[in-house]
Design a protein that fits this description.
By secondary structure, the protein is mainly α. 81% of the residues lie in helices and 0% in strands. The chain contains seven helices and no strands. α5 crosses α7. The longest helix has 46 residues. It is elongated. Keywords: Membrane, Transmembrane, Transmembrane helix.
Length: 229
């Protein structure tokens, strides 16, 4: 039970709280600096506000998680032609050799009774079974770490898009107010967050591929070790 709580805490910290800090800061910029209205609290006052900041960051991190799920489903899956966990067995994906794919399909059919064809849906079903098998065997520590990091980068991407939009809106408001002095700073932040968005897209794909690879290879090695049992 303690081990499970540790893993949940790891994902909560990387996946929700850290990206939530970014989202909370973006909302503070939007409400206080752009709309010039009071935010829920001030970021730099007292212990109680510090605790409240962490709690709200967690909540905003959850919202960013939901947003990142939508981005993954309707954006990343299209530009990547499927998630790494959906592509690893299809013929068009060159991550694994044809021979290794054949071995994986044989293992999946033998272990789970699932016949995998050449489509993303079946590959995802196979991956889910493999991941569950790895968790059941207690061999998923590395996968849990990369799952947490993947969640962090995915939610950071959503938070970065949020920051980009906030500073673009702030720049437009400054133009309307003819506040030229702060305009450069706002668009500079927007440019930096645009670069961060492009960088996070690359890292997100990399960590997604590593997560899928660790899950598949670790379970395959476990399967070979216990095949005769």
């Amino acid at each position: 039970m303690d081990k499970l709580i540790d893993k949940l805490s790891l994902y909560d910290f990387f996946g929700y709280i850290i990206p939530g800090f970014l989202g909370t800061w973006a909302l503070n910029v939007f409400f206080v600096e752009t709309l010039q209205v009071n935010f829920i609290f001030k970021l730099d006052v007292g212990f109680i506000n510090s605790v409240l900041f962490v709690a709200i960051s967690y909540y905003i991190g959850v919202l960013l998680h939901e947003l990142s799920e939508l981005l993954q489903e309707h954006f990343f899956k299209r530009i990547w032609k499927g998630l790494p966990s959906e592509r690893f067995l299809v013929d068009s994906d060159n991550k694994y050799s044809t021979e290794f794919k054949a071995s994986l399909k044989k293992m999946i059919e033998s272990k789970f009774g699932l016949i995998v064809g050449n489509d993303n849906k079946k590959s995802q079903e196979a991956f889910n079974l493999i991941y569950s098998g790895l968790q059941g065997a207690g061999k998923d520590e590395k996968a849990q770490l990369f799952n947490s990091l993947y969640g962090m980068y995915r939610n950071f991407f959503a938070g970065t898009v949020m920051c980009l939009l906030v500073f673009l809106i702030k720049g437009f408001v400054l133009v309307c107010r003819e506040n030229w002095q702060s305009l450069f700073e706002s668009f500079l932040y927007a440019f930096l967050f645009l670069l961060a968005t492009l960088t996070l897209m690359r890292r997100l794909r990399r960590f997604g591929e590593r997560l899928a690879d660790y899950v598949i290879r670790d379970y395959y090695n476990y399967y070979l070790e216990h095949k005769s049992e």
